[in-house]
Design brief:
389 residues, alpha/beta, Aspartate Aminotransferase, domain 1, 2 domains, seven-stranded mixed beta sheet, four-stranded antiparallel beta sheet, 11 helices, binds 4'-deoxy-4'-aminopyridoxal-5'-phosphate
């Protein structure tokens, strides 16, 4: 395939920021928008809307292998992370998380412990971005831990977390375990009948659903005095008040079903494309480094440091490629990537790092274009800055 997935000849390689909507999700969302009905109403229109939501809840639950009753629909993973941490911390106690989490976890954890800074313990990562089980044991040993929150896959590097032993350690210490699985869900399999996490956050727009829809998985039977962020009519079993976003939720369900069906084939294909991109850039450009555990990453992500070459200049020199410097959530902010700094990279290295993230609709054409444009852009910046290669 040689066509580009983005509009106007743009090679869109920024799936970790947001993925294009899957055709199945678009179709279901639009169909739901053309009907009327509040999922809480008891007449036929309301029941039809409720049915769309029920179907989506089942589709999201199938993707995770959990029960539909364990899914709370939210406005996204940011809200799901806030809900999870607030609920688990409602009786106080310590929060353990890691230095490479998304701000939706980091800022919530800081806010919850603002009056007791010692009640926040931050785990470090190694040079590959991996959290250390021994570090968790040490943090747990001080006792009174309410929750451990560790991400399933990092948004900047794609590095995965081996959640099972970490979950087990948290449970042995009497703590709840939450994972921000926003970048993993829909891309690699996850089985919540096997993996014993108590709480999990996901976001539909990362796997081809609409933006502004996500879910919190809250395992049935955990004792959790939930704390809604939004009070009102008691929707979503009291977790989140407000009229349900039926069209968005229906689209999220359709995206979950499509991602589930295509996952084995998609993850292999996307890994091959990512590897092609990575090896071509390393070979042609030299003096660069791939960040993160090479054999333990999401299929479509590569974080590449082009030594001495500012990432903003590279991206500006290749307007036909959509990629990002560090994480899109913090773009515009002058501070360097906290993830790369936590992995021991210098500020200069962090500022010279580009993240490409591919996904289900990425094509060979996108990758070929990204290779050609990146090579041209990096060489151009090196020439301008008189950097010897
Ligand atoms: N967690 C991670 C790891 C993410 O990558 C993102 C999105 N950048 C979020 C949380 C926030 O998700 P949402 O956009 O649904 O609020």
């Amino acid at each position: 395939m040689t066509e580009r997935t983005g509009s106007s000849g743009l090679a869109y390689l920024d799936y970790n920021a947001t993925a294009p909507m899957r055709p199945q999700a678009r179709e279901v969302t639009l169909a739901a928008m053309q009907t009327v009905g509040n999922a809480s109403s008891t007449h036929r229109s309301g029941r039809d809307a409720a049915q769309r939501v029920d179907e989506a809840r089942r589709q999201v639950a199938d993707l995770l292998n959990c029960s539909p009753g364990e899914i709370v629909f939210t406005s996204g993973a940011t809200e799901a992370n806030n809900l999870a941490l607030r609920a688990a911390h409602s009786a106080g106690g310590t929060v353990i998380t890691s230095m490479v989490e998304h701000p939706a976890v980091l800022e919530t954890a800081k806010n919850l412990t603002v009056n007791a800074p010692n009640a926040l313990r931050m785990l470090s990562v190694d040079a590959d971005g991996l959290v250390d089980l021994e570090g968790l044991h040490a943090a747990l040993s001080a006792g009174d831990v309410a929750i451990v929150s560790l991400m399933a896959a990092n948004n900047e590097t794609g590095v995965l977390t081996d959640l099972a032993p970490l979950t087990e350690a948290a449970h042995r210490a009497g703590a709840l375990f939450h994972t921000d699985a926003t970048q993993l869900v829909g891309r690699l399999p996850i089985d919540l009948a096997e993996l014993d996490v108590d709480l999990l956050s996901l976001s539909a727009h990362k796997f081809g659903g609409p933006q502004g829809v996500g879910s919190l998985f809250a395992r049935r039977g955990i004792s959790l005095p939930y704390h809604p962020l939004i009070f009102g009519g008691g929707q979503e079993r009291g977790w989140r008040a407000g009229t349900l976003n039926v069209a968005g939720i229906a689209g999220a369900g359709a995206a979950a079903a499509a991602a589930h069906r295509g996952m084995a084939e998609e993850s292999l294909r996307v890994t091959r494309l990512r590897d092609l991109l990575e090896s071509a850039l390393v070979e042609e450009l030299g003096d660069c480094r791939i960040n993160g555990a090479l054999d333990y990453r999401l299929p479509g992500v590569t974080s590449i440091t082009f030594h001495g070459v500012p990432a903003d200049a590279v991206l500006a020199a290749m307007p036909d490629v959509a990629a990002s410097e560090g994480s899109a959530c913090s773009s515009g902010a002058p501070s360097p990537s906290h993830v790369l700094l936590a992995m021991g990279r210098s500020r200069e290295e962090a500022d010279s790092t580009v993240r490409f993230s591919l996904g289900y609709a990425s094509t060979r054409g996108d990758v070929d274009q990204a290779i050609a444009s990146t090579i041209r852009a990096v060489r151009q910046v090196r020439t301008t800055l008189a950097i010897p290669i």
